[in-house]
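User: Hi! I'm working on a homework problem where we have to compare a predicted structure to a textbook description. Could you give me the structure for the chain below?
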Amino acid sequence: MFENFITVFSQVIVLFIFMFIGLFFGKTDLVSEKATRGITNLLTYVVIPCTLIRAFQFRFDPVEFREFLFCFAIAAGIHIATFLAAHFLVFSKNREERQVLVLLSVISNCNFIAFPLQLSILGEKGIFLGSAYSAVCALFNWTFGMIYMTGRWDKSSLKNITLNPSLIGFLIGFILYLTSFTLPSVISSTVEYAADLAVPLPMILIGVMLTQANFKTIIRDFRIWQSILLRLVVFPLATLGVLVLLGIRGEVLTATLIEAAPPSATIVVILASMLHRGEDLAAAGCSLSTVVSLFTMPFIISFAQTLA
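Assistant: Happy to help. Predicted structure tokens:
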């Protein structure tokens, strides 16, 4: 396990070096708030979809396809189970705050942080298996997430799902995989170069965003700590325990835990901002959980690798 821990920890350190580069750029105003929005759009609409498309650029294999469907089913179960658990475990007298804290506990940063780790630890196979979790997460965000926050379902929710860039990238890659179609070399090279940005760019962005957080205030907030404990410790370990008891091993186990172990996702901040509900709490929770995950993720993922 120690060797696995060192391997995972070294990969996490690489990611967090990029994050500290972002912190430096944010503190020195070398990257403005407007530029941050531009980087977010670049990642959302180009880099992450290209990463998903690249992950499916190999011939269809029935065994790997069954593994993918298995990961999809596991991801759906994880989201439903953790949502129900968080709904009963998270405490706050304010209803809107409680909604934000529940989503902070459930939704992991399965694109920006998990994908670089998948590439580092499992390679393209990790992205392939992890994309199942990402697809489920995108569906969850704009269905359960929106309904939970607003108490209703409308056409805008359906639009957010169908036009979600990650889901579009996933569907394009999935169709290419099912048909064993290989992209022309020029397009393939373009996708490759864009996908290569999936490791440094998200972490630099997160670092810039962290400069806006007031950690002296955040650290004293018990409400945030309860969601961080669930997000980074309780739910990943519970997921690992259940999967091991069910006899799930190998790359499926490792890839699933890499997706389940990251900190709270920035999509929670986006949803809170869109609906004007607990924006500051969502931003604070994402910021602090990102920092704490530096210490929790290596232990959980290396433990999963040892059991795999």
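For your comparison, note the following. The first helix runs from residue 2 to 27. The CA atoms of residues 93 and 110 lie 29 Å apart. Good luck with the assignment!
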